[in-house]
TrEMBL record, chains A, B:
Coiled coil: none annotated. Signal peptide: none annotated. Residues 56-142 form the Thioesterase domain. This is Thioesterase. Pfam families: 4HBT. InterPro entries: HotDog_dom_sf, Thioestr_dom. It comes from the Bacteria.
Length: 158, 158
């Protein structure tokens, strides 16, 4: 199985790395990891047995979560590169939040198959990116997603 | 705390009740439960401590999951009522799948607060419903959602 070598989530600041979807400091979370694959971004994930919609098929909420974190991670990769950095150079990457999430469910998603989310990042504003995602189960395109990702404001939530 | 008395998910057919979001037969799942509240639908949920985005705030993927299952549950309630049934009369309700999910994240969602998803169901076709959802954390509107829900096809996924 291919793995993501330099996932952006591995380099998020320690106090911003508790995300249930993709935070390395969340032991109970999904642990989504997103890296570059050429000019596209890539997240790989094997759903757990409990992530069921009906027996044999993956829960749509898990696909939404995958697309969400893949989206903010992809936006972070893109802005980091624009700023002259790559994940492995040790600089702290920008952290994004999701303003909007859209998921189209195209086909029932079989369980026990690795999911592959591929992303293309479009800058729409210096602090706002659209991430267009396709999710494949094996060779089959099962979902499409759009994440509108915005740079996390200073003092987020304060 | 208010609870949902006659959640539609309690009456889904046993072999369609394993959903990670809302299936009563999924011990590891969220257990979302959706019922009528007047002419609106209602799902209540208290996020678990691990459902974090950044410390103190709820993970957006959990909100997407809540909106997803609240949407299919609301569509099931609406079609069931149209067919002359209420959840507690023992008839098996129709089961829906999500064709499309949209979530707008309006504000950071504080943790340790019960979430309240309220839904309005719009029939767009005899087998297709739009469910418009608002999610409140306490009195604060934190997210808006749209689910396009379609009656689960016979032999789903076959």
């Amino acid at each position: 199985m291919k793995t993501i070598k330099h996932a952006i989530q591995d380099y998020y600041a320690e106090d911003l790395a508790h995300c249930y979807g993709c935070g390395k400091n969340n032991e109970l979370g999904h642990g989504f990891r997103t890296g570059w694959n050429g000019d596209e971004t890539l997240t790989l994930y094997k759903p757990q047995p409990e992530h069921t919609a009906i027996p044999g098929f993956v829960y749509g909420g898990l696909l939404a979560s995958l697309i969400d974190c893949h989206g903010t991670g992809s936006a972070s990769l893109a802005l980091h590169r624009k700023n002259g950095h790559e994940p492995e150079d040790g600089a702290e990457p920008p952290r994004f939040v999701t303003a909007k999430l859209e998921v189209q469910y195209l086909k029932p998603t079989p369980q026990h198959v690795e999911l592959r989310a591929t992303g293309q990042v479009e800058e729409v504003h210096p602090k706002k990116f659209n991430v267009h995602t396709e999710v494949y189960a094996g060779e089959e395109l099962v979902a499409k997603g759009l994440v509108v990702a915005a740079v996390m404001p200073e003092g987020f939530g304060a």
